[in-house]
Known about the structure:
Radius of gyration: 14 Å
Number of strands: 9
Order of helices and strands: HHEEEEEEHEEE
Distance between the termini: 27 Å
Number of domains: 1
Largest sheet: 9 strands, mixed
Shape: globular
Structural class: alpha+beta
Amino acid sequence: MNSRTVSLLIYLVIGLMVSSGTQAASGQPNFTPALFGDGELWGSKFTTVLPAPNKNNTQSFDKLFVIVNGAPGQLPVSEAAPGNPDYNGGRWFTHTVMWSLDEDDRTVLTSYDDVMYHYGLEHLSIAPGSFMGGPPDYFQCPMLPVK
């Protein structure tokens, strides 16, 4: 199975978790790896789709980078994680990320710093918003420790 197939499967699972809305909210928290934040793996639990922020609450969202053509093992990457003073409790603004490097040259991104480093080298393109079939543009999904 190539990395693109693995990445698509990961995003399908996340998409199903997020798109199931109220059904996911009534489910159990997921303490298995679901995303990276500040270099660590985190679990999560979808709670709700949120409306787009207004001029008064834009800063209350963190960016969630969903890499659509990532290296094998790639999960979404959060801008901040619990323990980081910039973490907003799991209120996300989805950003779609695409590698411009050949598949063999891609690496697993595990932090905002990783994303910004490769973006600065023009290895990545980042577009605000989600892709068709992906998670909502704005949603709440707290990060939970992996058990």
